[in-house]
Amino acid sequence: MDMDGLILRLFDIQAVKFGSFKLKSGITSPIYLDLRVIVSFPDVLAAVAALMWERVKDLQWDHLCGVPYTALPIATVIAVQQSRSMVMRRKEKKEYGTSVLVEGRYTAGQTVLIVEDIITSGASILETAQDLRAAGLQPLHSIVMINREQGGQANIEASGCSVHSVLTLSQVLECLERHQRLEPAVVGQVRQFLAANAQVAVPASPLPPPRPKALPFAQRAALCPNPVGRRLFEIMEQKKSNLSFNPDVTKKAEILRLTDLVGPSICMLKTHIDVVEDFDWDLVEQLRALAVKHNFVIFEDRKFADIGNTVQLQFTSGVYRIAEWADIVNAHLVPGPGIIDGLRQGAKAAGRDIGLLLLAEMSSKGNLATGAYTEANVKAALEHPDFVIGFIAMQGLAPAHPNLMYITPGVQLAKGGDALGQQYDTPEAVVGRKGSDIIQVGRGIFGAADPAAEAEKYRVAAWEAYQARVQATA
C-alpha cells in the first residue's frame, strides 16, 4: 500500500472525519483523525506499522512503548514483525494491585522509542515520557503516524525527545483534494483552521503524587500489629539482612548443614517440608534451634489453597503439624477469605503467634496470579492486619500501608531463567526499583561452591538496594 493508497483507505474507513470535533487540547477542529478504527482493518494496521517502522529503523533504542490506548496495537505489530522489545505504560494506577506504571522487562538507563498515532499538542507523548522517566527509562525518540502541525513536535522536542512522523495533516488534505474526495470549501476551512491554530499549548495537568516515603524497617516494625511480622522487621534491622534462604534439597542432613552455613546472613529460612525424604521431628527441633542461634524466622512455604476447615486440619494435623513450629505460612486466596479464618483458627489452636503471607503474585512464566486476583489479595490483607503480614509478590503492592511486607522469589545476582519457566530478577531491581522488601534465594546460594560466601553477597546486594530506596524518598 503506497502513501496515497493508505490515505484514501483511512478516509474510506472513516479514520479521517470532517465536521466539528473537540480535541484533547480543548480546541474545536473541523477535522478529526480517529486511528482507533484501524484495529478492525488488518491491512491498514499492517501498512501503518510498516510505514512507521521505515521511518525509525535506523535509530538506536532498546524498547518500544505505545501510548495507551490507540497506539498499543501499532506498537505491538511493530514489535512482533521486527522482533523488537516492548514495554507497556499503563494509563492509570488502580487503588489496589500493582503500583508499577511501566510493565515489561527492562533496566534503568535503557532507551525507549515512543509510538503514537496522532500528535496535536504532544500532551500524550509527554505524559508517557514522564512515566518512563519515573521508571528509570530514557525516552529518546517518538514516531507518529500523522502530525497535525499544531505545535506538538516543538513541545515534545523541547523535552529532549525527538519526533519522527510518517504524514502531516497538510499531506492528508492534499491527497484527498487531489483525488477529489473533498469539496474545495472543506479543504479551505481546514487550512484556515490550521493557520489559526499553529501552536496548541500542552494542557496543564496536576503534578504526579509524590513517591511514598520508604520507611526504615525499624519504623515499620512499630506499625505492624502482628507479633511475628513485627519481629521479622526487627530482625532485618538488627542483622542488616533482607535475605530469605530456601535450602530446597531433600535430605535432612543437607538442610541442616546449609542452614547453619548461611544462618548468619539471613533474616528468614523458607522450607518445603514435604519434600524431605527422611523427615522426622528431630529435623524440626534442630531447625528451631538454628533459628534461635542465628536469629531468623522460619517460613513454611506450604501454599495452602483449600476451604477453611480443610486448611485448618492441614495446618495443625498430619505428619508435619506445621502450626507447632512454623513462624510464617502462606496461602492462595483462590478459595476466598475463608482460608484466612481457617488458618487463623489453626494458629489459635496451636497457641502460637504466626504470620500469614498471601500469594498475590508469582515469578513463573505464564502464571495466573495477576490483575483482579492480585487486587483481591491486597484487599483481604487490609481487612486482616492482625494476621496477614504481607505478600509473596514481585513488587510492592500497597505502599500506603508500610505494616505490610513483600517477599519476592526468583532472585539471582544476574537476570535470567530456567527450563521450567522460572524467571529471575536482580536484588537491585526487586528491592530498589520494584519496592519489594525481602528477596527469596534458593539455588543461587545452595548451588554455589561456597554457600556461606554467596549468601553474604546476596545479603549485601539486597541491603544496599533497600538503603538506596529509603534514601531516595527521605
**Oligomeric grouping of the chains:** single chain
Mean pLDDT: 90
The first-level CATH class of the largest domain is given as Alpha Beta
With helices defined by DSSP (H or I, 4 residues minimum), what is the helix count?
A: 17
CATH topology of the largest domain: TIM Barrel
- CATH superfamily of the largest domain, by name, is Aldolase class I
Portion in beta strands: 15-25%
Can you tell me the number of structural domains? 2
Helix content: 40-55%
Our Rg estimate from Cα atoms comes to 28 Å
Low-confidence spans: 417-422
**End-to-end CA span:** 55 Å
Description of the structure:
This protein folds into 2 domains: 3-196, Rossmann fold (3-Layer(aba) Sandwich), CATH 3.40.50; 217-472, Alpha-Beta Barrel (TIM Barrel). Mean pLDDT is 90; it is low at 417-422. The relative contact order is 0.09. The longest helix is centred in the last third of the chain and has 22 residues, at 451-472. By secondary structure, it is of the alpha/beta class. Helix 11 (281-294) links the parallel strand 10 (268-271) and strand 11. It is built from 17 helices and 18 strands. Helix 8 packs antiparallel against helix 9 (227-239) and helix 12 packs parallel to helix 13. Helices cover 40% and strands 19% of the residues. The chain has helices at 3-12, 42-56, 71-82, 123-134, 152-157, 169-178, 184-196, 217-223, 227-239, 252-262, 281-294, 308-316, 338-350, 371-383, 427-433, 443-446, 451-472, and strands spanning 16-22, 28-33, 63-66, 88-89, 102-103, 111-119, 138-147, 162-168, 243-245, 268-271, 297-304, 328-331, 355-359, 388-392, 405-408, 416-417, 423-424, 438-441. The strands form 5 sheets. The chain has an 8-stranded parallel β-barrel, surrounded by 7 helices. Strands 3-6-7-8 form a 4-stranded parallel beta sheet. InterPro entries: Aldolase_TIM, OMPdecase, OMPdecase_AS, OMPdeCOase_dom, OPRT, Or_phspho_trans_dom, PRTase-like, PRTase_dom. In the N-terminal section; belongs to the purine/pyrimidine phosphoribosyltransferase family. Its EC number is 2.4.2.10, 4.1.1.23. GO terms for molecular function: orotate phosphoribosyltransferase activity; orotidine-5'-phosphate decarboxylase activity. The active site is at 301 (for ompdecase activity), 303 (for ompdecase activity), 306 (for ompdecase activity).
